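Sample intake sheet
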Amino acid sequence: MTSSPLDPVLTRWPLAALIVSGLMLAIAHAFETFGGLAPCTLCLRQREVYWAIMAVAAAVLVLGRFSEARSLKPWGDGLIGLMFLFGAGLAFFHAGVEWKWWPGPTVCSGGGATASAADLLAALNGAKVRPPACDEAAWVFAGLSMAGWNALISLSLAAVSGLAAWRMTRR
């Protein structure tokens, strides 16, 4: 089999997936903390996918230390890929809600329970606080919202996961 520049990433894919998922969560939290962009309900659901991927990737890494379980690594890479694919679908759904292609869940109408500490403090002082709505893009870059970028990134990571799984079965 010929060598490619992706080989170091593919052979250590669970570790790379764990790191990338952690970075995606850190970026989302940075937008929230430093950008003042409170997450809507669908944003929080997308974050849950990354948390789940981190858990599965960590489990695959631990199991990979046991020689009996090494044959399961392609399955672990494949499962991580399916999880990234699910995340891409969820992000695409959210982007569609933002573009008004279809309605979002009723909890996303701006009446959800997500609020920052500042919002809660303002509410205690009598201010009316409107939580973020899923159908309004809080941030757009190059024509894509965070959900749109998340869909593209998750789809790419699903493809890399599939390639890692395929490469492991070829060895």
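Comment: The mean pLDDT is 85. The chain is about 65% helix and 0% strand.
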